[in-house]
Write a structure and sequence with these properties.
This protein folds into two domains: about 70 residues, no CATH class; about 40 residues. About 75% of the residues lie in helices and about 0% in strands.
């Protein structure tokens, strides 16, 4: 089997989707550190950022493995209500947008 190269313009790993959330925060933290305290401070901020991300991922992974059976027995029965609840939230959000536009005289 040939290895596929992951690029943003092709179907890649799900991690690409997270770049929109994490990359700006990372660039802001490191860029601010470079601007205020130089490269040494930026290295410390980079190491702190990496340690914080690793800690969060470690906690989530450990929780998922240790609580997997409990979560399955509690969450799976509730999944049948997700689609109807999402539909109600979408209807409510649409109603709020229409109400806001009418109240503001924009319609």
């Amino acid at each position: 089997m040939r290895a596929r190269h992951c690029s943003p313009d092709r179907e890649g790993p799900p991690g690409w989707a997270a770049h929109g959330c994490t990359l700006p925060v990372f660039l802001l933290a490191v860029g601010t550190a470079i601007a205020t305290s130089g490269v040494g401070g930026a290295g410390l901020v980079l190491a702190s950022y990496a340690a914080g991300m690793a800690l969060v991922l470690l906690i989530v992974a450990l929780a998922a493995t240790t609580l997997g059976d409990v979560l399955r027995s509690v969450i799976f029965p509730l999944l049948r209500w997700v689609q109807p609840a999402a539909a109600l939230f979408l209807i409510a959000a649409g109603g709020y947008i229409v109400f806001y536009q009418v109240r503001g005289g924009l319609w």
